[in-house]
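Predict the assembly for these two chains.
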Amino acid sequence: MLTELCNATLVDPLHPENGRRTSLFIGAGKFVSAPRDRSSVSESIDLNGAYALAGGIDIHTHIGGGKVNLARLLMPQTDDREPPLWPTPRTGELYTQMGYTACFEPAMLLSGARHTHLELADTPGIDSGAYVVLGNEDWLLKALADDAHDAAIDTLLGWSVEASQALAVKVVNAGGINAFKFGQRSLAIDERHAKWGVTPRQVIRRLAAAVERVGIPHPLHVHASNLGMPGNVSAALSTLQAAEGHKLHLTHAQFNCYTSDGPFGMGSGAEQLAHYVNAHENISLDVGQVVFGQTVTISADAAAQFRNRRHANPNRWIVNDVECQAGCGIVPIRYENKQYVHSLQWTIGLELMLLVEDPWRIFLTTDHPNGGPFTSYPHLIRLLMDRSYRQSILEMIHPQAAQNSLLQELTREYTLDEIAIITRAAPARILGLQDRGTLSTGAIADLAAYQHADDWEATFKRASFVLKNGVKVMENGHPTTAQAPQCTTLAATPQYDKRTMGGLAETIEQALRISYQSLQISSQEMSDLIRRPINHAIADAGTRKNPGGRSN
Amino acid sequence: MCSLRSELPSNCERRTRWLKQPNPTVQPQSTEDNDSQIQKISQLFAAGTKSLIWIDATDVNSVRAAVELTRAACATIHIGSSTSAQNFHRILTSEGWIGTSLAEVATQADLIVTLGNGILTEAPLLRERFIAPAVEGRQATWCHISDSELPIAGTNWQEHWPRSQWYAKLTQLLLAIQEPQKLGENSTQVNQLAQQLLDSRYAVWLWDADEFCNTVDELCIRRLLGLARALSAHSRCSLLRLESDVGRATAEETLLWLTGFSPTASYDGQRWHSRLHTENYTLEGWQQEFDSILFLRTVPTVRPMPGLAASHYILPSTANVSHLEQQSTTGVATCGVDYAGHLWRGDRAMALFCPPVKVPDASTPQRTAEDVLERVRREVEQRRLAHVN
């Protein structure tokens, strides 16, 4: 039996009836074609003209794992104030209210994978997945120093993804976190590691190529070096060049978009970075927008966080090294709209969003919670869609940041279609998730409907209706009491030669002092114990054109 | 974490202690008893009752079930922790932390300092698995500090610090680190260690978490944090607080991500709350505040049970319960022995998958604590619904 959603105003550039008020049909958890015989429709729900979009997909949000739990400890919830980090059930609830149905933890360590998956499993209402962090392990750096064959790197990368049930690979400050243990407080793109002698450029080049060879849909997800430092836009550009034409995704790009000129020795590099991205189709990025207010920064980049400890507000911070793979640094911060650097950061994120032309290659994130909470997405959507509102906020920031910002001249306003792309269709595509991000026939029935309100922020703040796998989880703006559908863990299936695992296994065991098999998470463990079954992502087999004609 | 798994070599001290415990006196329960036990436990959460679930040591899925029961019953859940955990919590939330993990000790540290009388006995495989590879494989230096003069094999040198002087010694050390130019001027016993720390690239301090449990110990830990920060300005120095009670560590991590609070959380029907006033409670304090207490332990441990006088106990069926009334106990399967579960390692860097090591037989308990708690939750919900109707 089918469910009909009638009077839905479709916002889905991939759907042939995009922009029209029409009906959608759902059967067995998926969108299906309109039936010939209406007697097969068992329920009809009137959306009263609400905008119907596919369920939102957050491509980069720190919501599960050891460092997230440490941050909860550092920034405890008080009884009278919501914390910058919520417990997992509340995280799921808030995402559902906003109409999001899939979220991805971008920094999962191989040894911390179980913890990450356990927390994600306890985050209801959203399908989830995680990106395994590579690029600072002793065994990888040694392999690169030895100029190991591609097959060896493929095995190392493929096994890490498979063992940790990851969806993608992330590299954080390539080689730099490891170098921090050898007295190097920063590591430029062509600077050699004090012990291993490899450069971040080498790490990125080889991992970016390996990701493609083993068939992981999502490009290498890169947290560039020198995060937060004045002048680091050159490091970002060098990082993108290091991919040598391979696909590469630059994450929280705003934090790597600073020049060293301008007031107080810091200015916007957004124009430079956007220009490069516009000219190179192999590059995508998520923005990492800053939102004014209290938050806490969480990063595997222990070196950068140690550097940032002086800005801790309140004045307490954590830096950890973890199992020779990466680190973690937790530094609370309060972004002030009258502070020049914070204001500059705010302008840069928006400049990037407005200057990068292709909405299929730029994604709306706050790098939650680093730039701000994910609950600020509706506010950011309004900033992108409403120039007059944007200008009004611009007038409230530090005057020198406002005066020097390109936002004064940029007139672009995002359309609804573009919002649907950057928050739904494009994340699905770049993660290789062909079954979602659209309302088209055959896609899973993840849907969010929004009643138009006074402004775009109010519109997107709370969905009036949400479906997850075709099950109503929100109706009339309130959670339903229906049994929540089983959410899944989306994971990649890398192709690599398992016969070469032997030598690697020994190397890992010597470093970690634990059997490598104990790091491997089986599908059975995921479903029986962790309780979020695996759903293997489907690689994007080819281009998928939108009706507008742009091929992607 | 290793301690109680059967595949370990027999010279493991903790495993030997566990095996030598007196024979259990809790027998597997019949199905009939099962139902009456569920009813009895449910009564602890009757409407109007101020109820507490006391988690002593348990696995992730048992905590998940306990939290769901706490929600259904609008009760309080608390992880019984030593004052050492409270000390650490206070330090972290007021100052932060600089930490590391066991693999870093084995692979990166060039100076390892173990502090205390408990670290080498509470973590008996620490030396073999993590310190020896560093010392023998990479020529790292190992200094052991305790108030005992007994020689420890494998150390490069030992420091004998009477227990009452640890705070003073650490303070001298910190001052020496902060003014290295004066190291040669004052002849103090900490000079050698201070010089080693200043010369090191990556120093790690390790100790047994539970050994540092009073207010002076808290000051000692703060001194260590000061040392780590001072040294990290120019090189690296990290701290590793090793917990031998992995069931408790597991419970704290799980409760924290589920509720936002640890070690105590109360549910009022709409949201979770902390209970800050219970921070310094003694066992009597808990007993006086709550009408009923359900005690939960699901992992094998050599630790004695706290003298809590709980209303009912859910315990591994192999637990020594000779001092408890049989009708106040429910025997359940043991995590990592009878059933698979997740338990955190003592450095909290990893959650380990602990498969059952025992082949199921007639004596294997059929139910887990999770099963029991789930049934109790359903019973509580039904009763509350009936009461409302």
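The longest strand of chain B covers residues 51-57. DSSP finds 13 helices and 15 strands in chain B.
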